[in-house]
Amino acid sequence: MSIVVENISKFYGEQKALNSVSFSVKKGEIVGFLGPNGAGKSTLMKILTTYLTPDEGKAEVNGFDVLTQSKDVQKSVGYLPEHNPLYLDLYIREYLAFNADVYKVSSSRIDEVIALTGLTPESHKKISQLSKGYRQRVGLACALLHDPEVLILDEPTTGLDPNQLVEIRELIKNVGKNKTVFLSTHIMQEVEAICDRIIIINKGELVEDKSLQSLTKNEIEHQIIQVEFDIIIDEAKIEFENLINIQTKDNISWELTFESTDDMRPKVFDFAQSNNLKILQMSKKSKKLEDIFREKTN
């Protein structure tokens, strides 16, 4: 396993940032690490990169213990933190040369990561002259510089324009073919585009850990019908087989969730007809990863 987390807990005073979190990640997986702000994502990433120590539990990266073998962990991990720390007065090549010296890697690797991250057109500039998107690329180039086995990326596409997003996603996807990538993001389309697996934490606790395929397949069986009737109707009168959830604000517009693979709109139409109701509008809402995320973290 590239990453093993066993019952990790972390406290800030009386606040429990992480509560007995456990999971493992295999080599070659691209894992999306999701959760609302304050859920504990960055805290766990800092533990895996040895910037923080856990209060309870243990963690290993590439077989190295984050507490007792921190130097070995640091050598085998490429880390892009949420707030990308850069020396703004240095030129791009200067900054990467400094880090290449720290990691004891050949200077030829600098040209490789510049090309890999699309920095070539800007490589003659100082970091202070770069847009936020290009600064993210410098951080990513630095994370890749020593060709690490594991990449830990905290919000790697922050500040990128739509074209850059596509390019960086492709880069992460390609890198993930022979490395382990563990990344946090709030962009659900990004997760759907590049991740093999989803781990969701909320209030410091793990609430979901599934492959993207199995998570979305599971949710296909749950369909949502949005319907608006012409008059107010009592919720108690709405009865359907396989109906698992009902939501309304005004007793006229309804959101009905069914556990069924069949299209339930004809059933809703029959219900309206038998109760002398007119349907003003009706639609079938597809459940997206964003909906699943909200359900798991509310």
Summarize the structure.
Keywords: ATP-binding, Nodulation, Nucleotide-binding, Transport. The chain is an alpha/beta fold. The chain is built from ten helices and 14 strands.
Report on this model:
By secondary structure, the chain is an alpha/beta fold. It folds into two domains: 3-211, Rossmann fold; 221-297, Alpha-Beta Plaits, CATH 3.30.70. 33% of the residues lie in helices and 30% in strands. It has ten helices and 14 strands. α4 (108-116) packs across α5 (132-144). The longest helix has 14 residues, at 162-175. It starts with a strand and ends with a helix. Belongs to the ABC transporter superfamily.
Spatial arrangement of strands, main beta sheet: 6-7-8-3-9-10
Distance between the termini: 31 Å
Sum up the overall morphology in one term: elongated
At the first level of CATH, the class of the largest domain is Alpha Beta
